[in-house]
Write a structure and sequence with these properties.
It is a single chain. Helices cover 76% and strands 1% of the residues. By secondary structure, it is mainly alpha-helical. The chain has a domain of 255 residues.
């Protein structure tokens, strides 16, 4: 083998070493030691250890440590807004609990939604909300939280419910012209927004229909007899603890309206937090009395109870063991493990980038794109790889978009092919990686570990394979110049 080939192979092996270490260490950490408790801190430190390995290998090759610290600062800085949103989601969950917003959504939802079709209905509801708002995050933070509560009260596996919520939320996120990723993908590929959405529907609609069919089949095979017998008892127990009123729906509807009107998510969610606190004072004085441990004036009690719900753990007393789990919130403090995970992931991704390892791996991938199908497969593989390593959905769209843009042109392929592939693989798979900012966010908001809902996020799992199948069979592959082969 020529020496330059040996050198290139060695470079690639060194670049892959931190990633291989991460995979093996996480496998051992989760599978053999900590199990479900791995996200309490051990996985976060493994990401930092893997980053440290990348730093050591990079410094051994002449990269200065200051370059790594700048990369850490940039990566963590880029996640500032998502981190603040995650904190506010914790606060929102707290005030929406003590105000009765979430219990009211569960109360009325149980009377409307049939258990057999609950999973399918959850997917459809989240799809519609996400299309209207353009935000998968906003969807799960509002109706998603309530649907998880409803599913638990019905006795339905919460991982299944989370999978249905995420499937619907990411379908809507992909297809909405209001979505940031839907605008970013064609911008990176050099295409036009509505042409991108129209072309993306070709693979996205079959994927969501398959996912919907699977959830219908699962629902039809659930033991709904137990659910039906428990519903009246659950409704009665909710009424005992909370003052339920349709007026409570003003809170989530206001937040959804703000998001539809393209008000910044930070502002919309903050308003939702404050409205939840105000509605708690108006509708749930008995809850305020329960949470105000220090007594004092009416103002002091309201202040203490609302702030406890915003920043910390709250457990509303109930005799129903199932509802006790629903009537609990971790507040902002409950989101700290998620934020810690994101920061650790940004350190790992920054180390790979600063060491030049991402660039080395990307070069190796692009060399594989010798045919049309291999080009599509390389695009999908690169997006998946970046979601795992760079831990950021936007990087999984931007970097492959820049990398493959000219290659698609050279092969006479319209930009819609690239933008569709970016969305079918980069956008939807980010939520399947526990340390990716999207995976960490959704597991934190829904209270279901990524590893648990992974196998039920059918739309997200099907989408990359759907785009590869269309490429393999040359279905709807748009040409720049149709007359040119």
């Amino acid at each position: 083998m020529p020496s330059h080939k040996k050198n290139k192979n060695t470079e690639l092996l060194i670049a892959l070493t931190p990633i291989l270490f991460l995979i093996v260490a996480l496998w051992f950490n989760v599978g053999s030691v900590f199990g479900a408790d791995a996200l309490d801190g051990s996985n976060q430190f493994i990401l930092i250890m893997s980053g440290a390995l990348a730093v050591g290998l990079g410094m051994a090759r002449g990269v200065k440590f200051s370059k790594f610290t700048r990369a850490f600062a940039k990566n963590i800085g880029d996640t500032t807004k998502p981190i603040i949103i995650i904190l506010l989601i914790g606060a929102l969950a707290g005030t929406w609990l003590i105000s009765g917003v979430i219990p009211a959504m569960i109360y009325y939802g149980l009377q409307v939604l049939n258990a057999e079709y609950f999973l399918a209905a959850s997917l459809i509801i989240c799809s519609l909300i996400s299309i209207a708002t353009g935000s998968s995050w906003g969807t799960t933070a509002t109706v998603g939280i309530a649907l998880i509560g409803m599913g638990r009260s019905m006795g339905i596996n919460e991982a299944m419910v989370a999978g249905a919520i995420i499937s619907g939320a990411y379908f809507g996120d992909k297809m909405s012209p209001l979505s940031d990723t839907t605008n970013l993908a064609p911008a990176m590929a050099g295409g036009e927004l509505f042409s991108h959405i129209k072309y993306m529907a070709i693979t996205t609609i079959p994927s969501i229909l398959i996912a919907l069919s699977i959830f219908i089949l699962i629902g039809l095979n659930l033991d709904t007899a137990i659910v039906a017998g428990n519903t009246d008892k659950i409704l009665s127990n909710i009424e005992v603890v909370f003052n339920i009123s349709p007026w409570l729906f003003l809170v989530p509807l206001t937040v959804i309206l703000f998001i539809i009107k393209k008000v910044d998510a930070l502002i919309a969610i903050f308003i939702g937090v404050m409205m939840g606190g105000i509605f708690a004072m108006i509708f749930q004085p008995q809850i305020i009395e329960e949470l105000a441990l220090n007594g004092g004036s009416v103002f002091q009690k309201n202040y203490e109870a609302v702030f406890r719900a915003i920043y910390g753990a709250v457990n509303i007393k109930t005799e129903d063991a199932m509802l006790a789990e629903l009537f609990a919130s971790g507040g902002m403090a409950g989101m700290m493990n998620t934020i810690w995970l994101i920061i650790s992931a940004m350190i790992f991704g920054g180390a790979l980038e600063a060491a030049g390892f991402l660039r080395t791996i990307m070069k190796a991938i692009t060399k594989l794109a010798t045919t049309t199908f291999k080009l599509f497969a390389s695009t999908v593989g690169t997006c998946l790889f970046l979601n795992v390593t760079a831990s950021d959905q936007y990087l999984a769209l931007v970097i492959p978009g820049r990398m493959f843009k000219d290659l698609y042109k050279e092969k006479n392929l319209a930009p819609e092919n690239l933008s569709r592939s970016l969305e079918d693989s980069g956008t939807v798979t980010s939520v399947l990686v526990p340390w990716n900012s999207c995976g960490a966010y959704q597991s934190g908001v829904l209270g279901v570990a990524t590893g648990e809902y992974f196998m039920y996020a059918f739309f997200n799992l099907i989408s990359p394979f759907m785009t590869l199948a269309f490429a393999f069979f040359h279905i709807k592959i748009k040409k720049l110049n149709p007359s040119k082969k």
